[in-house]
Amino acid sequence: xxxxxxxxxxxxxxxxxxxxxxxxxxxxxxxxxxxxxxxxxxxxxxxxxxxxxxxxxxxxxxxxxxxxxxxxxxxxxxxxxxxxxxxxxxxxxxxxxxxxxxxxxxxxxxxxxxxxxxxxxxxxxxxxxxxxxxxxxxxxxxxxxxxxxxxxxxxxxxxxxxxxxxxxxxxxxxxxxxxxxxxxxxxxxxxxxxxxxxxxxxxxxxxxxx
Length: 210
Known about the structure:
- By secondary structure, the chain is α/β, with parallel strands linked by helices.
- It is built from eight helices and six strands; from the N terminus they run H-H-H-H-E-H-E-H-E-H-E-H-E-E.
- It has helices at about 5-15, 20-30, 40-45, 60-70, 85-95, 110-120, 135-140, 175-190, and strands spanning about 75-80, 100-105, 125-130, 150, 190-195, 205-210.
- The strands form two sheets. A three-stranded parallel β-sheet has the order 1-2-3, covered by helices on one side. The chain has a three-stranded antiparallel β-sheet with strand order 4-6-5, with no helix packed on it.
- The longest helix has 16 residues, at about 175-190.
């Protein structure tokens, strides 16, 4: 496959699940990058060389998330796993000025990588960051019928389909079994409707119906 021109774009192309890098690059160059905020591009750039950059939200997945939030007129959201803040900033830019985000991550240091850019965007007042594990509040995420939750990285670079987990890249293996079991759990949960979308690194959209 042809090499991408820029390192940050190349990293995102490798996250894509389309047939080849060239097709994914076409999608990004045609429909995503022209509409992406310069501030979001800044977070992508400062994240590109991080050893765990692959867990960040891909820009095409972010574009879909922003559209969903605007479609349902979201005002309050919860973000589990902030990393360097790409999807957090995207959410803050998508919510109205009085919108609120509870952002939860066990690692404040990675959040602080993108924090100067979030501040520059003028949306820090929408964010309540909590350095904490998320399990104590997970049961409340969909407590209202009609509530949405979006899970990112649910296809884990395509490794969820491997018959032999040992064939997955080494950095993917520690979480692979958990993601496979998590996907199975969502698939049989009678209380939600789901749609697993092959954008970015895989996105699963859930709506509570009971």
